[in-house]
Amino acid sequence: MPDRGGGPTGPRIRVGRPSRRVRTLLMTLGVLAVLGMVFTMFAGFWTDWLWYRSVNYSSVFTTTLWTKIGLFFVFGLLMALAVGFNIWLAHRMRPPLSAMSMEQQNLDRYRMGIAPYKKWLLLGITALVGLIAGASASSQWRTWLMWVNGVPFGQKDPQFKLDVSFYAFDLPWYRFLLGFGFAATILALIAAALTHYLYGGLRITSPGARATAAATGHLSVLLGVFVALKAVAYWLDRYGLAVKSSDFKATDSWTGLRYVDANAYLPAKTILFCIAVICALLFFATLWRRTWQLPVIGFGLMVLSAILIGGLYPAIVQKFQVQPNEQAKEAPYVAKNLKATREAYGIDDSQVTEYPGTSQTEDKTQLRDDVSDTASIRIMDPNIVSPTFQQLQQIRNYYAFPTNLDVDRYTKDGKDQDTVIGLRELNLDGIPKRNWINDHFRYTHGYGVVAAEGTSADAGGRPEFTESDLPSKGDLGSYEQRVYYGERTTTYSIVGGPQKEIDYSDDSGEKTYSYEGDSGVSLSNPVNRAAYAAAFSEPQILYSGAIGDGSRILYNRTPKERVEAIAPWLTIDGDAYPAVVDGRIQWIVDAYTTTNGYPYASRTTLGDTTADSLTATNDQRAVVAQQNQVNYIRNSVKATVDAYSGEVKLYQWDTQDPVLKTWMKAFPDTVQPKTEISGALMAHLRYPQDLFKVQRELLTRYHVKDATTFLSGSEVWQVPDDPTNKTGDAVPPYYLSMKMPDQNEQTFSLTTTFTPNGRDNLSAFMAVNADPGTEDYGKIRVLKLPTSTTAAGPKQIQSQFNSEQDIAESIRLLRGGDSEVEYGNLLAVPLDGGLLYVEPVYVRGGGLKYPLLRKVLVTYGGQTAFEDTLEQALDKIFGGEGAATEPPPGEDEGTGEDEGTQPPPTSDNPTVQEALNDAQEAFEAGQEALKKNDWEAYGQAQKDLEDALRKAEEAQSAEGGGGAGGGDGSPSPDASPSS
């Protein structure tokens, strides 16, 4: 209770008002917070500018920035003016306030409340809508640049006879302008109506007229503008029918006009356009008539017409004209869709030929020599052997290989050879001691290329390395081996300063290095250091003594990331791959130009179309911008990223692509001409996988050129599921050197198979020439099997492998103990009218956690072989000399012995006998290794055994006698079962 005495009271205490010191502190904290936010925004902008300048593509940054700024201010200002002017006009037209109704008396409080702040309120509202509209418009920078720089395609759509560029470049911009116009008109209408209501121009409950003449005229004009924009929308909708997507039973996604569109929707849109124009004129006429009677009637008629003409009439046409005779009605429009889709996806020149599916030669022995001439069969699966590369060539735990290796071509002894290749990249998880200095200063790069022959394995089932060890050495010669930019390099590094980097380690210890390139951004400037400390949320960058003169920060280090940042208008292929070119490791990145505005061409979603069993388990192989829906795609750019310097180069690959020409006008001097591609680089370019996957998906339906057949759906194919794993995803395409029936020699190719829709037998085989050094690079060949035959597809072949008793028993023995069996890529090769299937089988045996090649499965013409080597399997299939199928060596955990393996024979020749004694020792060492499940020692023993037998055979041959091994001069299969 308060003190009610009359004595003196103490000093009064003001409650609720902070002291001056507190107010000063709060104000200081507020200012610091604002400055912090401003500096953070500045840091993001400044570091972006520094990065683009460091890669010599500052023009991309400035062009994009100024385009966004221009769109922001122009459309933000237009929106602000549209709304602000109509608020000002409605306020100016307010009626004089006389006898006040209860409604107006209630509103008077609000009018009086905002009266002192009318100008500020007007500015605030216009600024808010301007900022929102400007931000939305700035996101349309791609649409603007394509419209202002668009070049013609030189092709016209079949309905309106307009160049394709109108749909690809012009129509999207017109639609944006139309949408902006609708938004501005609606916001202005709402703002004007509220202002008229607030100041008495519109009344709801007051007696008398509901609106003043001024308010009626003002709002009628705005409604007239809205209806006029609707008329423009109806007119543009006519052209939009050519790129409109809809469901159609002949295909999942149909683009373009169908019968009902051309004969119902198109005339309906024209009629509605005329009605909307008349209705808009009636609204404008209220400026003189001051009544809404006619405009309201006109607007009601327009809505009714939209329902009847635009909705009901097309439904009637579809029901009573199209459905009773669909094939005849739709066939002309299907033909247009077929033609446009094949052109838009580059499959119009696909060569589809009939293929019997069964061998035409009765004596299969004649085909044995044709196999090696037809294909260089790759038994090293790049998607399986990465752990083997890791175990045998990792060398240090802080190195790692990608999950999926790559296939390239390198010349050896004057002949191109399919090669499995991977880079020894930095693996931060393997650093012995994790801390900020080690993560970002000491361990900064990987080291060296590791490569192996794709068509062979050594005696132990390991890759035959052509480039290996640390530093790497082999067939690739001398090159810069340090890998500062790679697929696994996702964090920043600070290099070139006082802190030395770990280069690599050998028997003599760690080798140190200091980066000598000019990549990255210099941190010698304190402003730069502060900006990166803020941008990366890493304050140590600001004050660390490990940063000094010469320090540079490297980031955005994955090849796909760098190309996407430099060319944001490109869609990036999911698989960047390395190549040694002119003494440098170059990442090669395929990039695409796309649009969804190609008339009549069906759309596809890149993420769905390019998904397969590899992307399901490795998201690094996913295409960038995978959710984009496109109906036109070209591999228009080949990009390279230097693994040491990070230098990015873009080369024009498709010189005819109008989309690329448009972007080259928008960003001049960013893409180099095709003639700048060196011969050394050209030798390693290839046909990209993601484009191939898009094309094969389209060819499941669009291999058909006849509209009637297309409508019937009888020739629909599907991409089979990968039979070698259980993901249930599509089989990936495979690279290998082979020749199709109409080719004279092998070419590096990308291949796949098709099965009928809903069935597992083979319906077609597809290959594209992937070697740009040949004349018909990019030519798609499809071998179509007759529907009357039931050639086995991949799933049936895998099932056939697994169901044969001898093979099943051998697989069971391979899985003995804690071993795991992994199936490699199931390759299909056309041969003499039939299909030769080859599948390598790998085993992770005993304590070894990496796969070794142990068997090769081969089938042709209904015959199957399961042998230790590809040569033995082919010999068995085609009647050559080969051993019978036997259990694999040493996988029976009970004995650890291989019953089919016999000790080497003896000889009276001393030299031969000495070699055979060495072979005996190697044989016994191999058996001992098998008992211990030591696969590495076993492989070495098998190699020693093979060398000893070869030495004995050469010594015996020198005397004119037979070989110590097989009669053909090779070691006996019985003596070396895993060679």
Mean pLDDT: 85
Which structural class fits the helix and strand makeup?
Answer: alpha+beta
Rg, Cα atoms, Å: 37 Å
Largest sheet: 7 strands, mixed
Please report the total strand number as a whole number: 35
Oligomer: single chain
Helical percent range?
40-55%
Q: Count of DSSP helices?
A: 26
Q: What is the terminal separation in angstroms? A: 103 Å
Overall spatial form: globular
Low-confidence stretches: 1-15, 882-907, 960-979
Strand content: 15-25%
Q: How would you sum up this structure in a few lines?
A:
This protein is of the alpha+beta class and 979 residues long.
Please, could you describe this protein's structure?
With 979 residues, this protein is of the alpha+beta class. Helix content is 42%, strand content 18%. Helix 2 (58-92) runs parallel beside helix 6, helix 6 (164-198) packs antiparallel against helix 7 (213-240) and helix 8 (259-289) packs antiparallel against helix 9. The chain is built from 26 helices and 35 strands. Mean pLDDT is 85; it is low at 1-15, 882-907 and 960-979. Strands 3, 4, 26, 27, 28, 29 and 30 form a seven-stranded mixed sheet that branches.
